[in-house]
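Onboarding guide, step 5: your first structure request.
Type a short instruction followed by the sequence, for example:

Predict the 3D structure of this protein.
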Amino acid sequence: MQFLLGLVVLVSTVLSVQAAYALYMMVYAWRKPDLDDLGRAPDQLAAPALSFTAIVPARHEEAVIARTLDRVVRSNYPAQLLQVIVVCSADDNGTIDQTARRIADLKANGITSVRLVVFDDGPISKPHALNYALQYANSDVVAVFDAEDEIHPDIVNIVNTVMVNEGVKVVQAGVQLMNFWSSWYSVFNVLEYFFWFKSRLHHQARLGFLPLGGNTVFFSRELLDRIGGWDESNLTEDAEISLRISSIGERIRVIYDDRYVTKEETPPTFRQFITQRTRWSQGFMQTLRKGVWKQLPTRRQRALALYTLAFPHAQAWLALYLPLALCMVFVVDAPMPVAMLSVVPVLFLFAHFLVAVVGLYEFADAHQMKVRPWTVVKMAVTWLPYQLVLSYAALRAFRRQVARRGEWEKTEHVGAHRTGSDAAAAGPAKEAEDVP
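The system replies with structure tokens like these:
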């Protein structure tokens, strides 16, 4: 019994500290008023000076790739300074055919800057596709977009301005899931992106390490060549490459401006959500094991990287801990201090929920959406189950990691975040009201 009580005290303390720090990062941007100016896109745009190559890895993306290509090639940036490369695996006939038809249509309208490249070797994964396409890139800056991305037409202009004016070689622009109404888990997924890009990444950038997002990230081509591109064995190639960039002292600039975010959708099914979250968790585990984080220059950076990459392990522990905590409260005759301490992580989860509700209303206001009271009721009912789902995905990732299974589990895209062909071009889209 003493061993069990000691274990509960240890795990409760660790999880409480972790939850408190996570809550701090969620609200960091609101505690630092200067971040609003830092995160905002510049009001005065510099003259186009840099050339850009946008790489769009696509696999089984027949439903969305044509619209994405239209958005990228019609960016408000000189056509002669913008190259677009779609990269596919040779077995993906549907996406190849759809992309080829769209490229032919664009050429018929005088747009000749789009190219389709196809690889027939392995692994079939996003980092391999990026490295393959990189050899065809001929610009100063390489941008990565996903096949379903709804990019703002001015995002290239904004990044050109930041890179020219500030001399940075890596820019992470905002990405935002939009369709919080689609399923019970969508609202939480949307809010994770909202707090991650709007607040947490700014905190981590100030400390000198942040895991980059998988898209709307811009790299100096010279820097990519210097660090050797992406790690093809890693399921979160974005987080891994950011470690190598930070380890050589390069600054990563973060921009999150609600007006210019790249819009995406949540996974369309619960199973797809589980596999996506499993891939992210396992990728962090791979990156932690690889050990590049140990090469970061300062102790503070190494501690932050360790915390970030080990987070999926904490989520896996939470799945095992919550039943134990409830047992301690209602079944085990534990000393009062131990029983009270065991509940502290659960109280932090409640605090996270309250902040998430406030964040939902701020997110909806920024994008001219309406949140119905029913949505908050659903959130209250499903908040704890959602945490358990994340924990299950982390456990599944750990099991795959132990079994040395590293195949890429694809997330389907159906375009649930899109509202109209011209809606995003005029500014923030007016999404449909939340439907219970």
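Each response can be followed by summary notes, for example: The domain at 1-414 is CATH 3.90.550.10 (Spore Coat Polysaccharide Biosynthesis Protein SpsA; Chain A).
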